[in-house]
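ok so for the tutorial part 2 we go from a plain amino acid sequence to predicted structure tokens. step 1 is just haveing the sequence, like this:
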Amino acid sequence: MISSVKNVQILVSLLKQHNIKDIVISPGSRDFQLVHSVETDSFFRTYTVVDERSAAFFANGLSMAIDKPVCVCCTSSTASSNYMAAAKDAFANGIQLVLLTADRDYRRLYQMEDQMIDQVDMYGAYVRSNVDIPIVKDSDDEWYATRKINEAILELNHGVKGPVQINYQLMDLSAPFVETMPEYRKITRYQEDDLLSSVEIFKQKLLSKKRIMVLCGQQEENNLSALLEEFFIKYNTIIIKDNYSNIHGEHFIKTVLVTERMSVNAFIDYCPDLVITIGKHVWSFVKYTLRDKKLKFEHWRISEDGKIVDPFNKLTSVFQCSAEFFMETVTAGVNSNNNLEYYNLWKTRLSKVCYPELVYSNFYAISELVKKIPDSALVHSSILNAARLYDFVSDDKALLSFANLGADGIDGCLPTFLGQAEADKTRPAYLISGDLSFFYAMNSLCGDIPDNAHIFLINNHSGSEFHTNFGKFYNGSLSVDKHIAAGHISNAKDWALENNIKYITADSKESLKSGLDVFINTFDSPVLFEVFTDPDTDTSVLESFYSINKVITPKMYFRKALDIIKKHLHIK
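step 2 — the prediction. this is what the tokens look like for a chain of 572 residues:
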């Protein structure tokens, strides 16, 4: 019999899949749903020790003897406090103790709820991981619970061994029990030795896939391009890059040109059966499409930190190694097997990408700038609209590109760029920035600015991203520029000249063209090129690009009709 309570089901399922059999139980009521689930399951070995302090030390001794994780399980409130001494002992001695602490709904804390204290992170620095599992009410809760329980279990033996706490909330003690439960998604972490010892298994898995999507996030300069090309040849793969991936190869594609406004129904025709992520933050909004529940695929993450990062709700494997090591290992001795079907599907779609007639705008200005930036230069874009447009217009130049992705703050783009330019004064360095980001951090221009610094400032007198996204909600006397887009009439001229920075300006295609020639070829002093554009025109050009590249397929109409029928018939 298994509890019908979802977070208990997830916990039991993952304990079994991670082969954690031994559970030391102390009497109580809050943990009844878990206790009855494991005491009626022959997989588990259960033990009873009445007081929690002794139960936890008993578990420590058992774990030391068998060199495997052992759980302790108790009711809520001060019962869990009695585990503290054994938790400290387990931490000091590298014992794999799993502290399963039953709890009540967190919203009831300090609300005159009986038998409830703050149990979250109660063991502090004496556990290698502590997670708090909510009452599971929907698919997002289920994803969170699955990820966090896997994360805690994997920290029992991650480089060093030690205890973990899994605090789980539960209110319905009398929930019914059921005969069977779903198998929830196990996440496995592989070290380098694990990959080497099982490499043939992983090669066969890769060879069995018809659609592998390698999604490359932001990276520093690397030697990965040739290895990714080799992986492409060996397996049915597409290699997705954006500017910030800093990889360059014949068969790498930039899906960002169509995925930003691609619906889930349209994406189904292009959906992979395996996604492999490498690098840091991914700029492309394809990451949001990939998390849709309609899409069925497996996710492998390759990262030297070995962290559990599950953005698509489909992570099954984490390879704690460099991307270079992974690619070298899984391609060695494999014949060329890519039938190019998946690659050609995407290439055909991308070949249809069109650009609208680019009137004078931020889109046009950045496009013209990128044409003139020399190969191997460093390019840093401020976040959101500048990052997007730079990604849309860049060609296949071997540029070294960065942005403050992930945190996406406008506050640090200019000083981050200046630090990068200072680090290598022999390399031409270019910042593409919006006005709000620039003015936020303009104090960083006080002092010695390296001569290789080129600042390309798009000034449309407002926050372009906010103008584009929220301008449609405003009409009449109230403008988006009043608060959200922070409209202004400022320019950078006096500040640039005051700090001995060469200043150029443009407000038309003609002045942009002449200014670019000076801007690109200035190397004897830092230079700032302020390009004035109109925010409404900027928005119109971007929306025009999205509109003419919208993906519509015959299958989409069929799926839409099918969704309407299912909704009418109340079919899930």
